[in-house]
Amino acid sequence: MVFNNVILRVKESQHIAEVASLLEEQARLSSAEPGCESFVVYHSETEPELFLLIEAWESQQDLAQHREAKAFTELYVPRVIPLVERQPHLCRRIWPD
């Protein structure tokens, strides 16, 4: 299992609602991709500009294929990335194992 967690911080507050909508659509599309075990989007209640993507993929190959899919290439890269600062974190789950 591959866990990819991404912290996104919207650069300008007027784009928060737009980013939320785009991430919801991205999650819907990504969740239907082969190998996607989970794709969850969180929006911080204390920092409105902060979003978290918590992803679980069956394999590194599935994550790589996700990066070639429509949700990533037509939605995330061209429409979300320009509006945010992004910190991806590949993670190892320690509990439950």
Write up this protein:
The chain has 97 residues and is of the alpha+beta class. It has a single domain, classed as Alpha-Beta Plaits (2-Layer Sandwich), CATH 3.30.70. Helix content is 35%, strand content 34%. The chain is built from three helices and four strands, in the order βαββααβ. A hairpin with a 6-residue loop joins β2 (36-43) and β3 (50-57). α1 (16-31) runs antiparallel to α3. 19% of the residues are buried.
For the sheet with most strands, the description reads: 4 strands, antiparallel
What is the CATH top level name? Alpha Beta
Counting DSSP E segments of at least 2 residues, the number of strands comes to 4
List the strand order in the largest sheet.
2-3-1-4
> What radius of gyration results from the CA coordinates?
13 Å
> Strand-residue fraction?
25-35%
Briefly say what this structure is.
The protein is an alpha+beta fold and 97 residues long. The protein has helices spanning 16-31, 60-66, 70-80, and strands spanning 2-10, 36-43, 50-57, 84-91.
Topology readout:
Elements: E1 2-10, H1 16-31, E2 36-43, E3 50-57, H2 60-66, H3 70-80, E4 84-91
Helix pairs in contact: 1-3
Keywords:
four-stranded antiparallel β-sheet, 3 helices, 34% strand, Alpha-Beta Plaits, 4 strands, alpha+beta, 97 residues, single chain
